Each structure stands twice: as C-alpha cells, then as structure tokens.
Design the sequence.
C-alpha cells in the first residue's frame, strides 16, 4: 500500500513524507538494526538510513522504493503490498 501511495505521489509530483517503524535496539544509530535502504542503494554501493536517527519520518525521496520490501517490512502498522 505504501509503495502504491509513493508511486501515485511521484507520478503527480506531490510531496510525500512517510513514517516508518522498526525494531530499535539502541536508538542512537550504533547497532544498525533499524536501517532501511536509501535512494540509490545498490549491492556494490550500499546506502542505508537509520530509522532511529534519520527518521522515523522520511521524505519519500530519501528512500529506495524499487526494493521497498524492506521498507514495508519495517513498517509496524500492518502495511503489506
Ligand atoms: S536502533 Fe540501533 S541503529 Fe537504530
């Protein structure tokens, strides 16, 4: 669902912010247990954002939506695509 909303907003040029939930062990950016993939993330050039430190509210343009499965699984609100 959240991925579909992002696509609609991107298509219409509407700004979008998303609030993500993740299990947080440290809450200060040390354990990397809450990371989501940032825009431009690639296997050979990873880009991760800590939900605890950078988020939990992200501008949708900060996130990698092509691999949004990880983002969706981070959402504790029952969001499933
Ligand atoms: S909870 Fe440890 S890095 Fe975010």
Sequence:
């Amino acid at each position: 669902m959240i991925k579909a909303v992002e696509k609609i907003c991107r298509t219409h040029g509407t700004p979008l912010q998303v609030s993500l939930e993740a299990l947080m062990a440290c809450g200060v950016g040390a354990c990397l247990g809450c990371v989501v993939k940032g825009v431009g993330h690639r296997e050979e050039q990873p880009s991760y954002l800590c939900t605890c430190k950078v988020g939990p509210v992200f501008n949708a343009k900060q996130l990698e939506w092509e691999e949004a499965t990880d983002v969706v699984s981070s959402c504790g609100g029952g969001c499933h695509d």
Remarks:
- The helical segments are 2-12, 68-74.
- The longest strand covers residues 17-19.
- The pocket of FE2/S2 (inorganic) cluster is lined by residues 24-27, 29-34, 50, 52 (CB under 6 Å).
- Residues 2-80 form one domain.
